[in-house]
Amino acid sequence: MPLRLPDRLPAIDILKNENIFVMDNSRATTQDIRPLKIVILNLMPLKITTETDLVRLLSNTPLQMEINFMKLKSHTPKNTPIEHMMMFYRDFESMRNEKFDGMIITGAPVETMDFEDVTYWDEITDIFAWAKTHVTSTLYICWAAQAGLYYHYGVPKYPLEKKMFGIFPQTPVDTKLPIFRGFDDVFMMPHSRHTEIHREDILANPELTLLAESPESGVSMVMARGGREFYITGHLEYAPNTLDNEYKRDRGIRDDVDMPKNYYRDDNPDNAPVVTWRAHANLLYNNWINYYVYQETPYNIDEIK
């Protein structure tokens, strides 16, 4: 599909080399098409990597999308050049009066902190509240999923003795839901987190629907408001080498991080990872965009409420 991306975004050249059709805004403005407006609040440290991972998945539908990047005014990233942030990202305040068909809020490296101790908690909860009336469907990932469930529904998070780290099989609870259209009975999902949410807390809240879970990695997907909110505790967007990079970064430094499970060929970190999640990752993002964004959003985007 054609993706409308900001001119000179690094992901454009990367994805073109992968034979993914993207176009910059200069070309897209010549086409008389109402694209889906997607905004990504990218809280991950390596922002260019996360941009590329997410855009790669969004590229797998026949719909045209315009991708926008949002940043927090109350937080300055340390691992991304300020020039990149100034060129491709906008503060939430400058976007507050806009509406979007879909939104993705990523994880963040703050999960061991109490939510209220996060320096940008006030600003991000303002965004959570705004999304309810300005976005047709919002996808919360990893820490954002825990933070969104806590803010909207009072669901707590719990610390883990060891990092939940690896690729774990997930079972859909109701395969008839459109989000699982085309799914197998079991699908794999990368996880990389030090905290978890409990299924009992999800089941106790009638506003929440448990979508998928694993005997080992626990709750992996939750839905609210009929699909206007999705909470994913893992990282289906991860590239093949992401867990490998994290493991090599932490090995010998942290004592709460073991080798990622179900990841390396023959469980040998000297071997390459075995990619087992990519097909379902593409399918899930495709289903989200089609059934919960495109099919639900009004043609006049100002009518979102």
UniProtKB/TrEMBL annotation:
Signal peptide location: none
Alphabetical UniProt keywords: Acyltransferase, Amino-acid biosynthesis, Cytoplasm, Methionine biosynthesis, Transferase
UniProt GO cellular component terms: cytoplasm
Sequence positions that bind substrate: K163, S192, R249
One GO term of the biological process aspect: L-methionine biosynthetic process from homoserine via O-succinyl-L-homoserine and cystathionine
Subcellular compartments: Cytoplasm
UniProt cross-references to Pfam families, sorted A to Z: HTS
Catalytic residues (UniProt): C142, H235, E237
GO molecular function: homoserine O-acetyltransferase activity; homoserine O-succinyltransferase activity
Keyword flag Cytoplasm: yes
InterPro entries per record: Class_I_gatase-like, HST_MetA, MetA_family
Site keyed Important for acyl-CoA specificity: positions: E111
Site residues by UniProt (Important for substrate specificity): S192
Reaction catalyzed: L-homoserine + acetyl-CoA = O-acetyl-L-homoserine + CoA
Top-level taxon: Bacteria
Assigned EC number: 2.3.1.31
Pathway: Amino-acid biosynthesis; L-methionine biosynthesis via de novo pathway; O-acetyl-L-homoserine from L-homoserine: step 1/1
Xref: Gene3D superfamilies: 3.40.50.880
Family, per entry: Belongs to the MetA family.
Function in brief: Transfers an acetyl group from acetyl-CoA to L-homoserine, forming acetyl-L-homoserine.
Entry-linked PANTHER family: HOMOSERINE O-SUCCINYLTRANSFERASE
Protein name (record): Homoserine O-acetyltransferase
Species of origin: Xylanibacter ruminicola
